[in-house]
Prior knowledge:
26 strands, Beta-Lactamase, alpha/beta, Alpha-Beta Plaits, 43% helix
Amino acid sequence: MTMDLQHLHPATGRPAEILVVDDDQRLLTSLATLLRQAGYQVTEALGGHVACQTLKEQSFDLAMLDLRMPGIDGFDVMSYAASARPECGVIVVSGESAFTSVSRALRRGALDYIKKPFDPEELLETVRNVLGQQSLLRDHADVQTRLKKSEALHRYIVNSSPDIVFMLDQDGRICFINNKVNTLLGYLPAELIGQHFSIILDDQDVARGTYAILDTSVSSDNPRTLELRMKTRGSRKANRHFEVTAFPIAPDTWPHIKDGSDRMSGQKARFYGTARDVTERKEAEAFINFQAYHDLLTRLPNRALFKDRLNLAITHARRNNQKLAVMFLDLDRFKVVNDTLGHAMGDRLLQAVTRRLEGCLRKGDTLSRFGGDEFTLLLPAIHGDDDAKHIAQKLIDALTTPFTLGEHEVFVGISIGIAVFPEAGQSMDQLIQNADIAMYHVKGRGKGDYRFFCDNMSIDSANRLSLERDLRLALDRDELRVYYQPQVCTQTGQIVGIEALVRWQHPDRGLLYPGDFLPLAEETRLIEDLSERVMAKACEDVGQWIKAGHKDLRLAVNLSPSQVEHPRFVETLIQQLQACDFPAGNLEIEITENVIMNDLDQISQKLRELADHGVRIAIDDFGTGYSSLNYLHRLPIHTLKVDQSFVRDIRNGDDGACIVNAIVAMAHGLKLDIVAEGVETDAQLHYLRKLGCHQVQGFFYGPPRPPEAIQQALKQTHLQMAAI
């Protein structure tokens, strides 16, 4: 009998190894020979004891053994093989034919039973069948093991997925969901099983999500992907954004789940999907979009968003024949706070100002930070100017209370220019520009107020740009001139002081007066350079006259609010006097009441420092501002200058002089010097002299003149006086 390939082991491809066990050497040899001729690898074991020892040392595919053996019989060998070599199959070859013996052998695990004497062909066929059956069992066990491992791996992958993985039944109820739903949304998978998937959708996305996922046009080849918001468990967490991909699966593809650990309901799954958390991406996109259209410090709309809303508002107002207002807001004294306390405090102040301004707005108004300390405000659909006036006054009032920044208490005001559509402009750019122009007219008149744009404010853009360019060149070309107006003693007629006044010798327009260019200098921040230039020239001229013998001659100089409010104002002024070798006691600075009252504490400190250096302080245009006795006795003030509007009202016996009377009486009571401005007639001079006014200035003694004319006048002992 020759070896056939069918006797090879199905799994390894080698001849099957068989252990033959019998206590009869003749039968043992006969059976072993038969199996070897059939191509099997055969090992002989004489008796049960040798069989167990052999099984202990070597593995076999099959054991063929006799039952009745002395000492250790076949049943004992079967028991030992079951524990030591469970992979080894057993065929009983025995003379026992009793049913009990056969039954017992099969219960012990025997795969077949061959009765002695045996037919060789029948025996070999039985061996082949048993080895084939073993191979099938072994393969099946291997498949089951691999399947269990595969399921465990799949379960691990699904539950370790960064995405929520879910399955829905045909009604949209959740029949499977992985553990990621707990990590991302806070729900336990078990509590969602059997619930409709809309339970975890944001209320605003329920209809859209339900329609999209259950849409019949969606297929596995054409899945539906959309972004949905899902609810997080608990009110403290914000809902999150997910990119959901879902598609139907064929019936019968997913069987009913038997294992409750898989968190599935008894319904068959009809939809499969994943939900990827894209909250960070959405937040990043939202932040980038916010950055593009908002100011990050104040969180207000920026210039781009404001213009976009203004364009829409103009279109709406034009279509409905309505009005709207654009306000241009500029903070007063913000630069002083920023320079004094630093940019960090300046930023905090801007945020605090923003909160107060927002509290004054109506629903639908747009407040925007235009840049720096400038804001714009859109008031859509107003009924008339009164609406804008009301809001403007609320904004001004909102900033009257001081701001607390750490240990500092600071005051800021606001100047507001208003342009109303359609009267003040038909386009976005016109409205913004005209509101800006109106705001600078407020600045020029003392700040802390509002004004509507009107045509006589307008300086065309080309002219404004040209004048600004020329003003910058004027500083480089030394085109500024200093003129002087004498301040004359009413009793002696002597020049006791002179006020320095700036003029601009424009190369094309001729001699320009302060009203022609100082507002533009304030607007373009050139006022400080201009004032510094005027001060240097005045100190040079008057210093020469003092050294020439007029040792008591007083120089009066007007200072702009921005100069006085600057944190280094005192230091800069004293350094300038020292550089010009000008005696501080001969200088009198003139400031308005409005400048003082903008920040009484800060200005008081600066004026005291100047007074300590000998500088005199004069209140210019007294009576036109706050006129508060509260600051007069608190500050080191030396002179009150009566505004020319009051002097102009002086008539012989006219009641209009009562204000002048009160001011002069007040000055006498406070032991202050008095200078009356705008004296033009003999009657005014006579009245003021009689009233006890110390000094006068005005066209009665001539207009402001260049230094050469003043030098000539100083050579005279007295000026021509009117008859007493």
